[in-house]
Amino acid sequence: MGRLVAPVDERTEHSFQMDWEQHVELDSPARLTNHSCEPNTGLRDNTDDGYDFIALHPIAVGSEICWDYASTEWESIAVPSCLCGSARCRGASLGFRYLTQQQVAALRGFVAPYLITTAGVGLGTP
């Protein structure tokens, strides 16, 4: 679903982090997806230098497609105040580095590969 459009020199609120120093713009509809602290999709690397959005459970027709920005962003700039409305809302999506072990476990393995190499959570800079 998310194919590479172009690498970006600086991250934006619409770019996706692919590695420690790499942010990219992905094509639509990936570019139009939103954050949720209790998402209905998880992201996995694909062969188009982007991410595939994998349904975590059946998604009803007309439902918004959303994912947890912390699953790809070490430190997020996109959601300083979260409005997802989930019972599990964290109030903000600050990035993977700020997640607890329990929150990381809730991502069910849908975490950007570069983040998996991190020895723990909340370690500061890589």
Automatic annotation (TrEMBL):
Pfam families: SET. It comes from the Bacteria. PROSITE patterns: SET (PS50280). Residues 1-70 form the SET domain. This is SET domain-containing protein.
